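hey so i finally got around to running the thing on that chain from the lab meeting. sorry it took forever, my laptop kept dying and i had to restart like 3 times. anyway pasting the input first so we r on the same page abt which one it is
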Amino acid sequence: MNAENQTDPGSELRGIKVMVIDDSSTIRRSAELFLAQAGCQVVLAEDGFDALAKIADENPQVIFCDILMPRLDGYQTCALIKKNPRFAAIPVVMLSSKDGIFDKARGRMVGSEQYLTKPFTQQDLLQAVAAHAAKAQ
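ok and heres what got predicted. didnt touch it at all, straight out
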């Protein structure tokens, strides 16, 4: 029996570099665990400033960004990423416990590709990475 032919949702994600920006250490750790289990390389950032400092060195292929963060919120962080020609093509997936239409629309306005509501599942994260990683290539 060939193990590679079984449907492993993360097999095509192996080696993809994903940045998770969230001020909650619990959210960062669970996202890191979910993504690492699928073979992704994970870069963690505590807030928007931390993320912007790391993004140039790390070159993530997909970014998950919390909306409610101190100092620089997720909308501002996403807008700054998208305004930089070097990083504008990196897909940004907003993370929030709010799932209102206004919140989702505002995420789109600043350039995010998707909006995930917390709490998310491993499958939610992996599907988002699979959907957007190819665009960043």
